Amino acid sequence: MHNNDFRIRRYRIPTAKLDHEVRICFLTDWHASKKSLTGSFLINILRQENPDLILVGGDMATAASFESLKTADRFMREAGRRWQVYYARGNHETRLYQSDLSHKRYMEYIHRLKKAGVCFLDNTHETFETGGNKIEIYGFSLPMGYYRKPFPPSLSYARFERTVGKVPDDRLCILLAHTPLYAEQYFAWGADLILCGHYHGGVVRFDEHHGAVSPQLVLFPRYCCGEFKKGGSTLITGAGLGEHGFLPGFPHPHLPLRYNNPREFVTIDLIPSGEQETLNGA
Ligand SMILES: [Fe+2]
What we know:
By secondary structure, this protein is of the alpha/beta class. The protein has helices spanning 39-49, 66-82, 91-98, 103-115, 157-164, 183-189, and strands spanning 6-14, 22-27, 53-56, 85-88, 119-121, 124-130, 133-140, 172-177, 193-196, 226-230, 233-237, 263-271, 277-279.
């Protein structure tokens, strides 16, 4: 499926660490609102894609709106009942968690999703087992200061590693890290697969890898969208399932700012051997 508003972006990644194919659906930056793709639309796409597991890169709700949290709640609980779901925080989940106004509602959201089977990864990791294969999934959360506009701070490798722990060397490792801003640290850590979002394809998209601006107002940000390889690691930055206002102090939380930049649903097939292949759209 591919039109001006939405597409499914497919990747195939070879790995010697699995003996059978594993399908991941990666959801990020939905920012659920009345103008978003609906939860039932996403459930239908998930049913069509039939993943072994769902990985969530954060920002499924928009922090400024409790209605958004309710919409994300309904969808995430349904996904959790049907599939194995691992959910890492974005900056909006962190804002919901940290704010006195929303903390209680956010904790209720987490509680309900956990009851539906969703596994939260907040600087923690879990093992997904499939047919004798083990995949270690890590979720990296950053304090809000690292999302500062317009000059986000640097993040040392030592601090990153202290936060997430040591990379496992005996099994396939996936890192969910909301912002690609610190991609060099993720690559140095050595996850087999790194999944990011946050940049919404750069709002104005130039090509598969390049867009105009990040939410921190960095122009032409690196690792903006698409697939990148370094060492033995593959990084994929999803362009996001939705959008919201990104200008400092901008009053409308759901202004649909995307140009040449369809909302993106990501499906990743991990294949046990063979050549890498990337399929655009579907
Ligand atoms: Fe974000």
